[in-house]
Recover the amino acids of this structure.
């Protein structure tokens, strides 16, 4: 065999070896890719807002660059305010890191390939050459796949995902929003008046406050505070699904005489009352204090909601220095929430143990006479067209200015 023939055989063998090595590389590293050439799992989509969930989306053609993770995840259309919130999306089981690369935060590590010389992994996510994010937020090869982590209507999270940090809870707390008219229709635009009535003898800035329909000139004298005086109640029904808990958030404005309460929690701790402006007089739980003659404004929920106070007061003033027992009425205006059960009731009660109620006599709380009734700003509320301010009651030719409250339901949610 001559030298020329030997040279040809050697060249052919080298070519065969080179072809074999080339096939091995084709199934291993693409240029700048992860070891093992692991493609992105199918289904790697971002939410409708086009942001990529944490787990690392690749920038186009960025070799070794840091992945851009969406802090807090994304919320798909339909997630109403009030969803549970958490900071940071849970990385899915699709983000891969080469055997020799640095594991990205939240990514899972796969072995099975030798990285090419140019393959590097940035802290925070794995990078693949050519990984691009197309229009509409679909991650091309190189992205990591989120396992079903989507946020559906009302901010609830399906298995595998966490809601974004941008979810804003609705007033009164989380849960799905429910049309108020389907749960508390009678509370929408509810007008609650401490109507002056009867012929009971009065003094000062009071008006007679007899039981509804009574013409008696005497006030009931019970053995205990609970049985003395006038007790008026108005029951409103809760609709919705029987037994389902609902959180009702409402606005209330008006003019009331104030009262001392104990054993519960005032909406504003250490409140300084305002004689000429609105006050937050909401009080959660507890009971009336000192069996005094000043009238209560009470809300009782039935059946009781587990874990809730189930009794609320709407005209609380601090007892020190005796703000809650002045011969005066005050403007109120605040937003508050309480819980009810579908199919239950809301009982609104006024209890005046001496059958005389303070009138709406203006901000001069030290004046001995009823000077000028207040007119309240009801902007943003929708009182009945027949509602006029200040409300008046006429008894035997005398005009009185009763206490009153007007309600506007802001929202109803259900867990």
């Amino acid at each position: 065999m001559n030298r020329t023939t030997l040279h040809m055989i050697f060249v052919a063998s080298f070519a065969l070896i080179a072809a074999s090595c080339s096939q091995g590389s084709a199934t291993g590293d693409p240029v700048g890719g992860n070891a093992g050439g692991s493609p992105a799992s199918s289904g790697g989509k971002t939410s409708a807002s086009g942001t990529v969930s944490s787990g690392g989306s690749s920038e186009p053609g960025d070799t070794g660059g840091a992945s851009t993770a969406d802090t807090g995840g994304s919320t798909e259309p339909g997630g109403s305010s009030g969803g549970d919130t958490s900071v940071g999306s849970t990385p899915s089981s699709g983000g891969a890191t080469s055997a020799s690369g640095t594991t990205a935060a939240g990514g899972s590590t796969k072995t099975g390939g030798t990285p090419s010389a140019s393959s590097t992994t940035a802290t925070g996510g794995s990078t693949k050459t050519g990984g691009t994010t197309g229009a509409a937020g679909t991650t091309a090869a190189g992205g990591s796949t989120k396992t079903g982590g989507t946020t559906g209507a009302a901010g609830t999270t399906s298995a595998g995902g966490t809601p974004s940090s941008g979810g804003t809870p609705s007033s009164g707390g989380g849960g799905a929003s429910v049309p108020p008219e389907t749960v508390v229709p009678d509370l929408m635009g509810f007008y609650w008046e401490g109507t002056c009535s009867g012929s009971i003898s009065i003094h000062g800035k009071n008006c007679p406050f007899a039981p509804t329909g009574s013409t008696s000139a005497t006030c009931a004298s019970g053995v205990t505070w609970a049985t003395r005086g006038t007790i008026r109640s108005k029951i409103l029904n809760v609709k919705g699904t029987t037994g389902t808990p609902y959180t009702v958030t409402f606005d209330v404005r008006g003019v009331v005489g104030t009262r001392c309460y104990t054993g519960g929690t005032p909406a504003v701790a250490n409140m300084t009352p305002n004689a000429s402006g609105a006050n937050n007089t909401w009080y959660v739980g507890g009971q009336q204090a000192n069996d005094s003659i000043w009238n209560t404004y009470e809300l009782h929920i039935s059946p009781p909601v587990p874990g809730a106070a189930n009794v609320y007061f709407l005209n609380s003033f601090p007892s020190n220095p005796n703000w809650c027992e002045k011969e005066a009425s005050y403007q109120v205006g605040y937003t508050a929430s309480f819980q009810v059960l579908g199919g239950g009731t809301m009982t609104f009660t006024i209890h005046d143990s001496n059958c005389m109620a303070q009138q709406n006599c203006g901000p001069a709380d030290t004046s001995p006479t009823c000077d000028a009734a207040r007119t309240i700003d009801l902007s943003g509320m929708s009182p009945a067209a027949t509602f006029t301010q200040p409300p008046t009651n006429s008894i035997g030719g005398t005009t009185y200015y009763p206490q009153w409250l007007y309600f506007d339901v802001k929202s109803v949610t259900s867990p």
In short: The longest strand covers residues 245-257.
